[in-house]
Amino acid sequence: MSRLDPSGLRPQGEASFDQFGRRIEYLRISVTDRCNFRCLYCMPQEGLQWLPKSDIFSYEEIADVVSQLAPLGLRRIRITGGEPTIRPNLDALIRLLRAVPQVDDIALSTNGVRLPQVAGLYRDAGLDRVNMSADSLRPDRIAAIARRNLGFDPIVSATAARDAGLNPIKLNVVVMRGINDDEIVDFARLTLEHEWHVRFIELMPVGEMRDLTFEHVVPSSEVLDRIASLGALQPASAPARGNGPATYFRLADAAGTIGVITPMTHTYCASCNRVRLTADGRLRTCLFGDHEVDLRTPLRSGEALAPYFRRALEEKPREHALLQLRVGGLRALSQVGG
User: Fold this and answer.
1) Which phi and psi (to 5°) does residue 104 adopt?
2) pLDDT tens, residue by residue, 49-73
3) What backbone torsions phi and psi does residue 296 show, to the nearest 5 degrees?
4) What does pTM read for this prediction?
5) Domain spanning 16-171+263-335 has what CATH number?
6) Of 330, 320, 278, nearest in space to 84 by CA
7) CA 314, CA 308: separation in Å to the nearest integer?
8) Per residue in 151-201, pLDDT tens?
9) Contact, 141 vs 177, CB < 8 A?
10) CA distance 201 to 146
11) For the chain, does the N or the C end have fewer beta carbons within 10 angstroms?
């Protein structure tokens, strides 16, 4: 007979569910709050007050968290930031995570700037796939949106990831009216030749990004209408590996797919399967909620994390409050890796 957890609700060692019956198997891990970009929708131009180095989890501490939570049902990991590739020796963390037996998928979210240099190294360490932000295909506009000119070319970076064997490759485009929405068709056209998954994300105005408002939001229905100028869109299956809430479509004979992610017009909270670990060791159960559980203190004092994880899931909210302009104290999306 299976042992029950302290609440008496379900057997230990099996999949973990929150209070609404959602299976939680996906952990997004922020390894740094810093970034080499200052994207309009993500971080204030002047940056933020950075976390003290002593507060940030070491790679060994991150691996310890995953090793303790994986037996409770976590199977999928995503490494995020800030910008994770600017933290030195990230391949060392990937190797540690790859060694956790229950983990079967390790992904990376990145702005893509360093992919030509590190894609092969990360793949050799055990990384499976990559999501890359790409908000424009035009060099001057890339620099304007990022508020940094680092010579980033999204096609070069995505190709480097592909050549390293990081598949599937997903390009994430945050659509902003009057800023980059005139490139929607250009991005969609990439899927005709490349086996890439281009996902259009509705802008989420949060925190101190006061220059971007709901007037800049382009509904995904409008995005799909514009793409229809290239031809009829048919529903498509999601990529073979993926944790996200995108709905996918495909143009006739296209090598890749087109996805839409709709946090503003159609929330996907009912199927949420994730929690987030901040760079300083707090477990956030909702991107735009204010609920979080401190894991750093018990970890560093030698306590088991399972009770804290179970309590966090029992308190995970039903849905986010973004549409009510409540964003859980976030000043910027970069604080939690999106």
Assistant:
1) -115, 0
2) 789 999 999 999 999 999 999 999 9
3) -65, -45
4) 0.88
5) 3.20.20.70
6) 278
7) 10
8) 999 999 999 999 999 999 999 999 999 999 999 999 999 999 999 999 999
9) no
10) 17
11) N
